User: Which sequence fits this backbone?
């Protein structure tokens, strides 16, 4: 009897993400086709990518769909399941086997598969040469609901047995790259329309960055903070503030270019401004299901000494002040809302207007009113604080390309 695993759909219902995977694409030009796993095509985990939302599917019954073929005569029906090799590894028996299983269970608990295993069920087989329709299987023993943000590899050993017997036979192995996010990604990311022409479906290239930056985070504040720090840490090896150019915008919504730059490519060069940093921060955070905006503040205001992204000195890097400043911002992007500013570190001590300075990256910091000691006071000296007011009408989420 020869049974083949032909294909697996992880995202088998594009209208919902409560029981299966999200709608995703690889980047601005490449779509993720479903079924994500295909026999003879999907060799490495990254060949079969899928993203799951903890908030939408983490505590629900997850399902996948699989398709099988028969190459020679087989029983009318068999039981089929898929096990996690780190839970049920083949090979050694006795004390050594028991010890290897114990180690595997520990590794899985810390780092491994969050989807669990494929529950056994009876499958009706076609005649030799035939292929089954896609069959829905339930996943069991999953840990999605208790996991954090991350990139995981799921490996399944597919097995069959003749109905009514207890002996299982391996017949295939599939591996999948699983992105775990907090919730369905927010704008500019979309879930509909689910079509190859929709470039705002979440990109796996963006998830590669964001999930690694916010690994194991379990809430929006910690994930947004981690992304903000990671963007700021791109300076000076990858990017730095465009002091020579007067703070010009270079990237905007060009996510393709900044990902290329992060990975060591040319991108659009090393220079960025506050609008670029606000876009990077909110876009990467929002692909994890966070809820940030890009929004501006003020006109023609002075600055306390700060550390601009990629620059090493506390001297006023912007001697003429800012015409405006743009940050990643929560809510209505007003005084009571919180900023995530990857563009510069402010002075975090009691007197930000004079030395010595204590570097503080503004993450989850209330914008505030003059004299309250919050973000506004740390950024702007008293003389021009009245000119630095939230420009809520600029609140946006730039389309990515």
Assistant:
């Amino acid at each position: 009897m020869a049974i083949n695993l032909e294909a697996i759909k992880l995202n088998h219902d594009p209208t919902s993400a409560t029981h299966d995977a999200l709608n995703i694409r690889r980047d601005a030009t490449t779509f993720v086709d479903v079924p994500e796993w295909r026999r003879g095509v999907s060799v490495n985990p990254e060949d079969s990518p899928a993203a799951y939302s903890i908030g939408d599917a983490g505590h629900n019954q997850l399902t996948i769909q699989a398709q099988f073929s028969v190459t020679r005569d087989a029983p009318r029906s068999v039981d089929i399941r898929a096990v996690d090799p780190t839970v049920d590894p083949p090979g050694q028996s006795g004390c050594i086997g028991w010890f290897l299983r114990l180690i595997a269970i520990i590794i899985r608990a810390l780092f491994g598969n969050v989807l669990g295993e494929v529950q056994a069920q009876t499958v009706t087989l076609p005649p030799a040469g035939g292929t089954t329709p896609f069959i829905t299987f339930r996943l069991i023993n999953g840990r999605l609901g208790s996991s954090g943000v991350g990139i995981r590899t799921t490996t399944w050993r597919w097995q069959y047995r003749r109905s009514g017997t207890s002996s299982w036979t391996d017949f295939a192995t599939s591996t999948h790259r699983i992105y775990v996010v907090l919730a369905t990604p927010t704008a500019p990311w979309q879930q509909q329309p689910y079509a190859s022409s929709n470039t705002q479906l979440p990109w796996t290239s963006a998830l590669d960055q964001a999930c690694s930056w916010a690994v194991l985070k379990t809430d929006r504040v910690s994930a947004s903070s981690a992304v903000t720090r990671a963007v700021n840490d791109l300076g000076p090896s990858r990017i730095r503030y465009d002091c020579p150019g007067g703070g010009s915008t270079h990237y905007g919504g060009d996510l393709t270019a900044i990902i290329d730059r992060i990975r060591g490519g040319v991108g659009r060069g090393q220079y960025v401004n506050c609008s670029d940093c606000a876009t990077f921060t909110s876009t990467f955070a929002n692909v994890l299901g966070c809820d940030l905006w890009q929004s501006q503040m003020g006109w023609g205001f002075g600055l306390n000494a700060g550390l601009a992204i990629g620059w090493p000195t506390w001297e006023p890097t912007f001697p003429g002040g800012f015409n405006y400043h743009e940050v990643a911002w929560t809510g209505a992007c007003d005084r009571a809302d919180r900023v995530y500013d990857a563009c510069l570190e402010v002075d975090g001590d009691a007197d930000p207007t004079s030395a010595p300075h204590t570097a503080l990256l503004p993450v989850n910091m209330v914008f505030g009113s003059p004299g309250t000691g919050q973000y506004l006071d740390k950024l702007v000296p008293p003389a021009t604080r009245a000119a630095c007011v939230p420009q809520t009408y600029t609140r946006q989420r730039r389309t990515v390309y």
Q: What stands out?
A: The two ends are 49 Å apart (CA to CA). The CA atoms of residues 153 and 381 lie 50 Å apart.
